[in-house]
Amino acid sequence: MTDQVRIVQLKELSDLKVHGRTTECREPLTLFWTASGFECNVSGTELSVEVEVTYNLFEPWFSYTINGDWVGRQMLPKGRYWVPLFRGMSADKIKNVRFFKDLQAMSDDENSFIHIHALRFDGKMYPVEEKALKIEFIGDSITSGEGLFGAKQEEDWIPMFFSALRDYAYLTAKELDAEYRVFSQSGWGIHNAWDNNPRCAIPNYYREVCSLISGEKNEQLGGKQPHRFETWQPDIVVVNLGTNDAGSFEQPEWSDEQTGERNQMRKNADGSLNRDDIKKIQNAVKNFLHMLRECNPKAAVIWCYGMLGVPLQLDICNAISEYIAETGDRNVSYLQLPNTDDTNVGSRYHPGALCHKQAAEVLIKYIKQTILES
Fold first, then answer.
1. pTM of the prediction?
2. How do residues 222-248 score in pLDDT, each as one tens digit?
3. How far apart are CA 100 and CA 148, in angstroms?
4. Residue 154 has what DSSP assignment?
């Protein structure tokens, strides 16, 4: 026999597990990053979630799993409303339900947020067991899951083609039974973005909750607050950056008309990459490793690269080697991931689901052999 259906505000749900980097606020819970959301163990026959969705241009999507199986994915229009997650299930059985934000933090949309207000259900909540392993994934469009839905010929840059549950981060965490977080942004790099914009470098925003979203609303929501690293310490940090830095050598100069600031990663007359500009990327790699170590003192750091080519592989490896030699930090390593080709490409010329699966397999094996079994 089930209880009466009731509405419970998030702040009253002590057994609810929050996933992803966010603030302490639960009135409501704001989801900023890819794969952020919540998880609960609940009995009863039905469960719905009250969401509030805002955006200017690109609507967010979400996915959810029940007992580890991916059973739903949909677009979220603007407004505040209830979304059913299950109905008609056995009342006495406990269901593990997890809600995932499919879309990355949108740096160009200051109103792009999903807020979670309450749950509506007719059962009881039970604690979610803590995982023994925590992993943070830091990257660009690959880590944001861009191109994981849609036919190969699709070129539109729209949320429908992003996925948090087909990417290598989710697959790796699921296989290793790990709790994970994602900190990623399409087109961004370690030193500058694909278009040479130096303001779009991931390390510039790593210390805050989600400061890459501009505007007063994000500031009011706490996005620009310093992130409290002590509240969630990863055992492993996986960095997958460098793809957009490499691509920027093929792009024209970036400039800001208001400030006069300019930046361009240059090629030499013979087509080779300018060594002075390569050095800037290497310094950015080393500086980010210093930051990661300061913020995550005990984490094993794995720098991954290669799903869209390896033009900067030697330069990144040399920078990592220099960092290790200068600091004595042996808990940092490099791992090449499988490349995208005609057999595993997805939409928007990005790695497809097969490529992400192949990358996850390589990463899982490496973590098991070099970190978990050592």
1. 0.98
2. 999 999 999 999 999 999 999 999 999
3. 15
4. -
